[in-house]
Amino acid sequence: MPINPDAVGAESQPRESSWGSKDCLLYALGVGAGVSDPTGFELEFTTENTNDVTQQALPTMAVVLGGGAGGPDSPMAKLGDVNFAKMVHGEQGITLHKPLPVEATVTATTRIADIFDKGKAALVVLESTAIDTADNEPLFTTSSKLFFRGEGGWGGDRGPSEGIEIPETDPDHVVTYQTRPDQALLYRLNGDRNPLHSDPSFAALGGFPKPILHGLCTYGFTGRGLLHAVCDSDPTRFLSMDGRFSSPVMPGEALTINIWDQGNGNANFRTYAGDRVVLDNGLLTYK
């Protein structure tokens, strides 16, 4: 049975979730803070009790907050009898409506914002908005674009195809971080326990020589580079980040982030592992 294009607009019930200091520390370590920082230990993100240092949350932590899209009322259940084993996480975006606090409780609602027919695949756009219970104001919105291979071809709208135009000039900033051989084992403690990132036999079924790094871990490493290079390490200046996953990363590989600062509150970026582009079509907005 093909994907159900009428699932557009399906929405979950609000789901409450909370996080605190320990969660922020674990996420920061999961995306390499401290160990892979060549200039210091990023103590504002990796400790909560350092003299004259106030703990802060990394902006990209929004991707692991808000309760996710699972659960009995998940809008994904409206897609029909699709094969989730053939789903690929294509793109990820976050928008911070205000700085991410170290401790908070939110209610998040997830909806299917759109479904596009890409011929050999269906592209599902999933959006979640988290409301801060402290003031009932939006805290952040996340957007995930999911490709379901083999589910296209019903004659629907192909959707927008234009990408971000990366400048051909030399980048304004180049940041390189070394991932750890056990990086995926650390990052998975933030909630994504998919065995593709931990079980060698499961990874082999997918054609990989060993478990691969989470795409959102690569996203988090990239976000750290953008935060320090463009936003002067100030999370309050980090407004939004969008990128397209283009190649898997193996734990232990170095990630190099090339950044082109447009000087108008926008910066483009592209992340490499060796000579492979692993995160492309990158756009950061900042103040």
Strand order of the largest sheet: 1-3-4-5-2-7-10-9-8-6
Which fold name corresponds to the CATH topology of the largest domain?
Thiol Ester Dehydrase, Chain A
Question: What coarse outline follows from CA principal-axis ratios?
Answer: globular
Low-confidence stretches: none
Question: Which percent bin holds the helix content?
Answer: 10-25%
CATH architecture of the largest domain: Roll
Helical segment tally?
Answer: 5
Compute the number of strand runs: 10
Largest sheet: 10 strands, antiparallel
CATH class of the largest domain: Alpha Beta
The rounded Rg comes to 19 Å
The name of the CATH superfamily of the largest domain reads Hotdog Thioesterase
Gap from first CA to last CA:
47 Å
What portion of the residues fall into strands of 2 or more residues?
25-35%
List keywords for this structure.
globular; 5 helices; Thiol Ester Dehydrase, Chain A; alpha+beta; 287 residues; 10 strands
Question: Could you characterize what this model shows?
Answer:
This protein is α+β, with helices and mostly antiparallel strands. The chain folds into two domains: 5-149, Roll (Thiol Ester Dehydrase, Chain A), CATH 3.10.129; 173-286, Thiol Ester Dehydrase, Chain A, CATH 3.10.129.10. Helices cover 14% and strands 33% of the residues. The chain is built from five helices and ten strands. It has helices at 21-30, 43-46, 183-187, 200-205, 215-230; strands spanning 15-19, 87-96, 104-117, 121-132, 137-149, 173-178, 238-245, 254-261, 266-273, 276-286. A hairpin with a 4-residue loop joins β4 and β5 (137-149). The relative contact order is 0.17. The model has no long low-confidence stretch (mean pLDDT 94).
